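Class, discuss our next protein.
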Amino acid sequence: MHAQIVQPTTAGASPAGPDHDREVALAMRIARLHGADVRGTTVLAGVVNRVVRVVGDGTDWVVRFPADRRRPDEFPAETWAISRAAAVGIPSPGVVACGRLDELPYLVLEHVEAAAEPVRRPWCWLGRYAATIATVPVDATAPDSLFSRFGRDLPAAWRQHLEYNIEALGDDDPLAGTVYRPEDAPQLRAELKALRAERFRFGLAHADLAPRNLVSRGADEAPVLIDWGNVTTGPAPWTELHRVHQMAVDGAITPADFCDFAEGVDVDLVTARPLLERLSVLSHLDLVRWARDQRPELTPTYEDAARRGLRRILDTL
């Protein structure tokens, strides 16, 4: 049986008080809806979601629900991805229930304790998992939230996504002069056009692969992969490779970590780097355009990251 494993920590947990008491009471209501005889609770670390461990006779569960009720319900996509990942051999959390209580979405997962030994070479495991997750069939049962604004046909959506960003690099592009120098537009356009020739496979991506989301079952045992809340679709396994490459560029992980990840995916970094840089160009430009349209308050942050990232890439061409 696959089980949800939550690291035993109180860091970031809600402090005692009215909010804490409400969260515990809500988690107990949810657990009892599904037959738990709750004898004890522990509020665990959580930012986007509130996370409460509930323990009773024969049950040891983790109850999750969003901190912000306005947040879109991510749990059906997470539940779908967990079941499909488990089917292709990824040790995954066991889903007890996914539903709503008083219009609040929730997810109940099984909890087990982590092994004392840390995972050896976690980034290599993460790379292996990225490659395996990419093989998950994304079929008609997949929730719509796994797909971009360009639709469920993944190859067609990728082409539309790419052409949108190529066409946006025109004379009237508002990003010219703020995110990139106008004289750099032809080079940026050439980098994006080069992506037209790539023959990607498309599939599922966890999109939050990091050692914090691996839970040990022994130093050399396959660890459990948790926290599927960012699951998405795209070029596979390049969606994951691009994200981890950006972490390495930003200094969030070491070059050795990135090499371990690439080894796990079975990709040669020497030949892959030009493609990864082109994907970075696309990502930087697209994120700024998305923020300007959907989340204006995030625009300065994405613009700053894009300026630095595009300058680094252009300087190496």
About this structure: The chain is about 40% helix and 15% strand. The first strand starts at residue 4 and ends at 5. The chain has two domains: 4-112, 122-316.
